[in-house]
Amino acid sequence: MQESTLSVRRPPPNPDESAGDDESKTKKGSSFNCLSMHAAARSASGGAAVLLLLLVAVLLVSFLLVSRSRSASCSSPFDSLGSRMSLFGGAYLASDFGSLGVPWCRSKFGKTVEWTSKDLLKGLEEFVPIYEARPIKNNVYGMGFDHSFGLWFMTRWIKPDLMIESGAFKGHSTWVLRQAMPETPIISLSPRHPEKYLKKGPAYVDGNCTYFAGKDFVDFGSVKWEPILKKHGISYLSRVVVFFDDHQNELKRLKQALKAGFQHLIFEDNYDTGTGDHYSLRQICDQVYIRGGGHSCFKDSDEARIRMKRKKFWEKAVDIDELCGKGEAWWGVRGHMRDDFNHSNKAISYAEHFQNSRFVESVLDVYWELPPVAGPSLTHQTRYDPARASDPIVEDGRYGLFQRLGLGRLETSVFNGYTQMVYLRISAPTA
Ligand SMILES: C[S@@+](CC[C@H](N)C(=O)[O-])C[C@H]1O[C@@H](n2cnc3c(N)ncnc32)[C@H](O)[C@@H]1O
Ligand SMILES: *[C@@H]1O[C@H](CO)[C@@H](O)[C@H](O)[C@H]1NC(C)=O
Ligand SMILES: *[C@@H]1O[C@H](CO)[C@@H](O)[C@H](O)[C@H]1NC(C)=O
Asked: Which UniProt keywords apply (predicted)?
């Protein structure tokens, strides 16, 4: 399969406006020094006059070098997965990113979610056949497998009385919510009604969903929630799940949700620092006092070297040049707070960025990032850097389990969209 078909997922352009290319650059599998290594091997074997023992030793060493460099640099992106392992020390360990690691947001009292990795595995087994029956097979610019599973799993666990989604596109996520809760009402906000897509191909319109779409579209932040919730018989806001896949500044959405009193939020695209088209929770919480947070723009640093290496293998990894903007601004995206599919891009100071994280911490009861469903040697995804994601549900090497769960039956392209979907439980700031 071609790189381009695998790379097509994350929109940054608003998918309703454009069918344009993904923002992320396609990185070529490097083929540096295959030739020079072959040459080295040849010249080594040419030294026939030298002691036999030495020759054997030299040949052995060059052979090792050649085979290593071959596997590391001369193969297709997929063949090189094995070499990625050897290059980075035998696995895709988070610790491979050295001082960087995986950032997270602190919650007020350090609470975490109820579900365990065992629950996630059980969920996966159940979800694979459901996903295989999805109406929209090609959901480029929308959710792939990982996030579909995450949304389904969390919604089913929380068992809300009302589900709200912002950002429907063709309706795949509406369908996922419906699979999780067959009888629960949905409210869907999206500038373009999913039914519009039916003319061109598969789309999903739900029979028990109130659409604020098309001419009835209202932005989440402008909705008068009280009468709507009343109409749906909702008296406890703890009974509502809100799902955001609308590429808006997540700080803005968080404040709006808090004001309305919502408590369970799921954000689809929780982009890592230096990437994405809107300011995300993960970006906000990326601070020097968080392990894996805070960055250096110093070109001679360990971080710069690690980033450069990682970028060769993972399309979404960013090096120091991409990470840092004017004045060594690394926070957000090069010191900017992006919003609305990057239609707005506002420079913020470090002090402002820092205040944002303090605010977020003051309202968080739980912050939980969905892990990728399976390690990259199993899914063959080449986009997100596993060193910046939590450990996968099905770890690398567990091929039998991967197959048993039915994950091997899915097209590999559905595993390319992982962007750290996050679940938040929030409440008013404690004074
Ligand atoms: C990435 S797509 C959503 C994909 C969808 N959730 C899925 O799973 O297939 C983003 C959607 O957000 C919509 N959108 C743009 N601005 C929005 C806004 N202010 N509020 C809600 N949705 C918005 C876009 O029109 C687009 O349909
Ligand atoms: C809507 O939900 C009700 C109650 O669960 C159900 O009886 C009805 O069939 C649903 N309607 C559609 C169109 O799905
Ligand atoms: C985002 O917006 C800024 C400012 O308009 C622009 O310089 C940048 O190239 C945009 N990035 C993407 C990926 O669209």
From this structure: Membrane, Transmembrane, Transmembrane helix
